[in-house]
Amino acid sequence: MRILGEVALLAAFVAGGYAAFACLAAQLARRTHLVRSGVAAAGAACLGLTITLAVLAWALVVKDFQFEYVAQYTSRELPWHYSLSALWVGQAGSLLLWTWLAAMLSLVYLATSRDAGPRPLVAFGILWANVSFLMAILVFAADPMKTGLAARSEGLGLSPLLQHPSMLIHPPVVFLAYAAWTIPFAEAASALLLDRLDAGWTQAARPWALFSWMVLGTGLWLGADWAYQELGWGGYWGWDPVENGSLLPWLTGTALIHALMAWRHRGGLKKLAVWLAILTFGLCNFATFLTRSGIFSSVHAFSQSPIGWMFLGLMAVLLLGGSGLVYYRRQRLVPERPLVSVLARESVVLVSVYLLLLLAAVVLAGTLYTPLSPLFAGRMVQIGPAFYNNVFLPIGVLLLAATAVVPLLRWGAVPRGEQWKAMVVSLCVAGGAAGAAAALGLAHPAAIAVTGLAVLCVAATVAGVLLDVRRRSGAGTIPAILLALRTGRRQYGGYLVHLGIACVAIGIAGSSLGTRRLEVDLDEGESIEWAGRRIENVRLVQREEPDKLVAEVELLVAPARGRPALLKPARHYHLLQDQWTTEVAIHSTWGGDFYTILHAGLGDGRVALTLIENPLMRWIWLGGGLALAGAAVAALPLRRRRTRQGGRLGSHSRLAAVPARRRAA
Question: Can you give the pTM of this predicted structure?
Fold first, then answer.
């Protein structure tokens, strides 16, 4: 099996390199006879990568310890599903998965492309140049088929922190997003190389950008949930360098989607759109550098390795080369129409794009400040969460304000009378909500502002939808609603994303500004009153399990209103890894989470606890789900018109495209 995987990987490397060369040469050097063989080579490389991935996955499940990778990340006692998840835990396995995903997505891209011109084939060649780069690292620096003497015959095992349901999904979802962001980059790069900077590439890149954004957002969402439940510190986002690395392309990807909208509707933000497509893919490689270089200590990072520096080098080449191409084609990237007013929708989109870039710059600066600080400060200076929170707060409020008013603005024009009326009503509703929040005891100005802006977002969205329905209501209200939903799916998907972001903002404001924390020791049978709850230490239970020792305290939590809950925070000592982990217990309501952590048993049933009240946490998970659902709705393809012959407009045979043009000539 190992030999099969090794041969398949080498064959895929050779075939993938040829696929990149053939597809690029076919269009850029006009060697059209190479098209068929290049696409066939790409298919062969996908087959080779699939075989290699299957061999490693099988070795993990059956615990074949002749593979160094298997011995390092599994053990005989590890359940099969966590053994399989080890595929994306280690350096070589995760890189193999990423490479396979990038290769398979390239075939999906080519099969679904509707452009009969040369740009998709050049983009396909660029995609395979990237896949070949990843395969070169696998072959020469991170061989997943490598054998070696296992340090322990039963395997070293998987980190207990990674034995969590979220870890079965979170890492592969992030790698899928990184692979998918390659496609908008390839579209932009091919348009620059061929000087075909029309709306065609934006139409092709937009659904892939939305898909990538949605998938990466899902990965961040799952990662936050894992951190909240598994790391045991009471939060969901610690501004860890590797967390920041994945956030960066999400921020710039959000800016890219909005820039593509401005290009489609008004012919504007062209330079920004092309550059953001390049930057977002470059930041995916930067995130990989943060994870794999070893310069940061993180629960997400791998050990020190030269592989990370290869990705940093690729990012530098991408940004320098891409910026050079954008400058070279600058005359072809001028706006088609000037901004007509600061109250036009494209003006607010432009402001939003720059605010997102400012947030990304803050994250990047904060992430790099610590490793670079000895160069200009003479010592290592740590940047803590307070820096990010203090900077993000005002920028985030401005961004939320821009998000809130968008539904009542028009492309290329100032709002009309009915839109002004709706704006005034929405502002009054939002002001009333902010005033009510202050009257009910909300004291922090930022929390009051976020409450008002979130309500403004909801009110303006509802008003915008009602105005849209009214314009279509000649045939009746119900048909008008159905028509609006059918023809405006992209727009309403975007509105749903904005509503989700408003919910997330409420949750972040509540959990960040209203958190309360108590460190307390409780004897068995003792109780305290805190945060509107009565907390009683019922008993401490200690038991042995096959692979760990467990200390678990039973806490009876009785709120002033509502049913009492029995929470069981615990400490686990994992025998194989010689490691303690914390298992928190959470009682969740729409008002907030009551989060409990067991630190130690102090003897005779006495325990050391941390109790945390996190207000409005559910709104973060709800908002994230709404935003992802909205992105999925917006990314769905519109129904295509059909020609008289019954075929879809723009459909073609990709492989026959070049020869057909030659015959026509």
Answer: 0.90
